[in-house]
Amino acid sequence: MDYLKTVALVAGKDLRTELRSRDQVVTLLFFALLVLVVFNFAFDFTVIDFVTLGAGVLWVAFIFSGVLALSHSFQIEREEERIQGILLAPIDRSAFYLGKVLATILFMSVVEAILVPVSVLMFNYHFSAQVGLAILVLILNTIGFAAVGTLFSAMTTRTRRSELLLPLLLFPAAVPVALAAVKTTSHVLAGRPFERYASWLALSAAYDLIFLSAAVLLFDFVLEE
Amino acid sequence: MTRNVRDLAQDLLYLIVLLLVPACLYVVFAVVPTEQRMGVVQRIFYFHVPCAFAAFLGVALCALFSALYLKTRDRRHDIVAHASAELGVLFCTIVLVTGPIWARPVWGVWWTGEVRLTSTLVLWLIYVGYLVLRQNAENPDQAARWGAVVGIVGALDVPIIYKSVEWWRGLHPRVLKVSGGGGLDPAMEKALMLCTVTILLLFLYLLIQRSRLGLLQEQIEALAFAERRAPASAGAAPHPTGARS
Amino acid sequence: MSGGAPPGPEATSAALRARSLGKRYGSFPALDRIDLEIPAGQFVLLLGPNGAGKSTLLRLFATLIRPTSGEVLIHGAPAAGEEAAGLRRRIGLLSHHTFLYDHLTGRENLLFYARLYGLPDPGRAARDALRAVGLEERSEDLVRTYSRGMQQRLAIARASLHAPDILLLDEPFTGLDREATDRLQDNLRRAREARRTCVMATHDFAAGVPLADRVVILRAGRVALDRAAAGLDAAAVETLFRNTTRPVAEGVERSWTT
Lengths: 225, 245, 258
Description:
- The complex is a heterotrimer.
- Chain A is mostly helical.
- Helix content of chain A is 82%, strand content 0%.
- The relative contact order of chain A is 0.14.
- Chain B is an all-alpha fold.
- Chain B has helices at residues 2-31, 45-72, 75-107, 115-135, 140-169, 175-181, 186-233.
- Chain B is globular.
- In chain C, helix 3 (106-116) crosses helix 4 and helix 5 packs parallel to helix 6 (178-193).
- By secondary structure, chain C is an alpha/beta fold.
- Chains in contact: A-B, A-C, B-C.
- Chains A and B meet through helix 6, helix 7, helix 8 and helix 9 of A and helix 4 and helix 5 of B.
């Protein structure tokens, strides 16, 4: 119970600071929108079907803005050595990790919740997907990305080349979620039967479970000074 | 005494590898018959496939010694884990170079989205990331801990990556079987076995040498620190110094 | 052992104890076989040139890093593994970094830390701490609007929020003006009167020496001098410091620590 309270406390603190400084959320959104606009120019969507390419375009936008959110998440803790204040507290450090993951998932969800409708309008797509399934697909894959990303960004933000190192480590490691995300999203957008992509969802769920547990066990070693 | 035994074993391993490598070359180029459909380029598979095994061995050993390091905090475990990752990247690079050389004449393209090759590229990227991250750590302690975390996460990720890329492409059944395994001439099979044993022994030899080198490097550094600190701990004549902050 | 440490109830077991403590960064020995016993209620001034191991020792005491050899005992209990989390409750750390969040108000910062420590009444703890450092009127303002001195006062409130009986101070005077330094000294004097165990690493002899019961000088990762501070003034300590430490090649000392 105390453990969950700590998770919520850390996530709540992140939400409050980020919403108050505002630049974070606004930057994320504009960045993600920019990606959409670039793709809108790059491909002629009157010719190419949105179902074929839309899922890929969307996830490029989510993943790129996700990397921004992840590195910012720990840059905040590195400034003024706030991380030491956290490390000094008598808490289970994996609770701090899960709090960070939760906050990242929430930020990415905000971006996703705004971007999906915008892209539907932008690319003149007739949206007929089941909303519940779409949310499930987005959430499952966002969790996996945030789980590995948070573990890595706790390391890379200590280095001088964090903005380069985080994607270098994270993109290859996140290939399974990226593939699962694009596949399932395009199936959902096309309104195809659930059975067609159920195994992909299982893969995402397995990825989430494996790396959340691994990170909970390994996080202590990352933060130790 | 034990030291001598160990040195002897290493020399023996060195000798075996020294004899096996030319033997492999001889067998691959002079003994084994040429594959009828693919022609002479097929011979590259006698190196391509064993190098892939060596790369996987590197990944597995890196994860194993990473876990041991986190448990024991013994520097030697980290040195072996680091060496395994380096060799993994080395052999993986050979796989990625030899693959397209084979693909060009046989498939008519240098690079396709072939499942195993794509997955191997992703694997290669992860372990290059491992090496770059270590280089950017603040001190060897941190490099060791970070390396261990990435080494373990990477090894967990590899099977999932292979599975997901396979699903993504839709199954490409028996790509490797046709060229390397299924319906092989017995002579080809034996040659592949010989090459696999040779490459794995070479891997082992390089791993031992690289680990010893890493250990010696640390010992030299430690000696250098001790040397440069010696005058300070001799408690010699007082010397003025400012309190710099 | 020294003039200013009257035997308290916990004097029998030292508040902090380093037992042949060593820390290596790879092959670089930051600390080498340190043996120190700090009785409860003592104020220890930790001196030494850059890279001598002051910060490393404080971080080891704070359980922020893991020793390579030897151990740290906090009130007789080994500070390792599962125990460490509980022992952290007894420790407060103040450094020249404030650990405060710019975009939270003074009160929100303290509330966050109070909850992190699982204090029974976080609201009250935050209020009391704000009053103790005289920041009640500014408690609803964002920390980014505070002056450096005010931020450091809030940092003191943060460090002592959970009423730790051991205070570790890492260069707390860095970046403070005269007035803020005086205030911090006042706070530390009060901590000393309250019989809190304090270990302070500093380069500021004038501010540090009047508070100290004992002076420990580190050089190249070893204890070079350890004596009672009774009868010493800042100038005397500075002379001692010069006599015990000699400039050590900057490159060697800093290569792994920066």
